[in-house]
UniProtKB/TrEMBL annotation:
GO terms for biological process: protein import. It is a multi-pass membrane protein. InterPro entries: ExbB/TolQ_transport, MotA_ExbB_proton_chnl. Keywords: Cell membrane, Membrane, Protein transport, Transmembrane, Transmembrane helix, Transport. It comes from Iocasia fonsfrigidae. Belongs to the exbB/tolQ family. Residues 58-177 form the MotA/TolQ/ExbB proton channel domain. It comes from the Bacteria. This is MotA/TolQ/ExbB proton channel family protein. The keyword NAD does not apply. The chain crosses the membrane at residues 6-22, 96-119, 139-165. GO terms for cellular component: plasma membrane.
């Protein structure tokens, strides 16, 4: 039971830490995006950077860095933005894999506890020569099954929060991708798809892990 208590403590700590982290991030509104776009098209880059940096969110980090690098070629700028995007994804994904591990391991730990309890119960039956009170036997089985129930109780919330945070990261990834495309349009450059502009980076997972 102690390993499951440790797992539940890990889940609680990760959920609280990630919840606080995402709560601090601000959404980059469409109105602000349009305002920054107008300023970039008017070549008022300093003002556009100031407005972008007013928000603490991954999208603002990408946009402000892209505007700061507007004098560089599109290829050079995209490489810089991919590095920044990769860094932001790693920051958002920090510790979330721990939820996935706990969600997979907890039921197995619970099942192991149940199997151990059942082995102990049948061992006692053998020692008593088969003359066992059914009520006592049922009590032993009930106690053994508690570990499986506890494992599932830990695993289910861990899996729910794992997918919840993954969904948030997917939304920020989509917004960062869109912001890179918009920045190219504002600067009057050829549209390049976020995933196609770098042959070595094709998916969010690739960027997330810096492959």
């Amino acid at each position: 039971m102690y390993p499951l208590l440790i797992c539940s403590s890990i889940v609680l700590a990760i959920v609280l830490e990630r919840w606080y982290y995402f709560r601090k991030l601000k959404n980059y509104s469409n109105e602000m995006l349009e305002q920054v776009g107008i300023l970039v098209q008017q070549e008022k880059f300093s003002e556009a950077i100031r407005i972008s940096q007013a928000k603490n969110c991954p999208v603002s980090q990408v946009i402000s860095a892209g505007i700061e690098q507007h004098e560089k070629s599109q290829e050079e700028r995209d490489k810089i933005l991919f590095r920044i995007g990769s860094r932001e994804l790693r920051k958002m994904s920090r510790n979330i894999s721990g939820l996935g591990i706990v969600a997979h391991v907890s039921p197995l730990i619970g099942l192991l506890g149940t199997v151990a309890g059942m082995i102990e119960a049948f061992k006692k039956i053998q020692e008593l020569g088969g003359s066992v009170d059914p009520v006592v036997l049922a009590g032993g089985i009930w106690a053994a099954l508690i570990t499986t129930a506890t494992g599932l109780t830990v695993a289910i919330p861990a899996m729910i929060f794992y997918h919840y945070f993954e969904g948030k990261i997917d939304r920020y990834y989509a917004q960062m991708k869109e912001s890179v495309q918009l920045l190219s349009e504002w600067l009057g450059e050829t549209h390049v798809d976020f995933d196609e502009s770098n042959e070595t980076i094709n998916t969010k997972e690739d960027i997330e892990y810096g492959i």
